[in-house]
Design a protein that fits this description.
single chain, alpha+beta, 60s Ribosomal Protein L30, Chain: A, 5-stranded mixed sheet, two-stranded antiparallel ribbon, 5 helices, 31% strand, binds magnesium ion
Amino acid sequence: MRIGFGWDLHKLEEGRKLVLGGVEIPSEKGCLGHSDGDVVLHALTDALLGSLALGDIGDHFKDTEPKWKDAKSSVFVKEALRHIKEKGFYVSNADITIILEKPKLYPFKDKIRENIAALLDLTKEQVSFKAKTKEGMGEVGKSEAVESFAVVLIDK
Ligand code: MG
């Protein structure tokens, strides 16, 4: 049994799409990034890679590579999952937290959870998705950035 942890933060800018956990959320601001900027799936990818000490998302998907420009971050998750399965492991569960001031994610949480479960070949019960705010404090609280944390447990 092994554990993996991932964290990511992206700047929020007007005119960018806000894609979180593969779900597009209506918002004035979206994540700046080379790919679609999906901070949730980036944290999850790092957690998956970290569980087997396979480096980080930047080692596998360089943000200078044109092929990852505006790429769907689900590609990164699927690739990290492929490595895990190749080594004879499966994901037991994932626990993910996002910290975002606005918009409120309450109406989208279930869809995001379902989407992540499908990406990881898991049931919804194996995936937890929690949304928090920073109560107006710091960059995240001022809606200048969005942050996400992910933990996964894998087993043989
Ligand atoms: Mg990122």
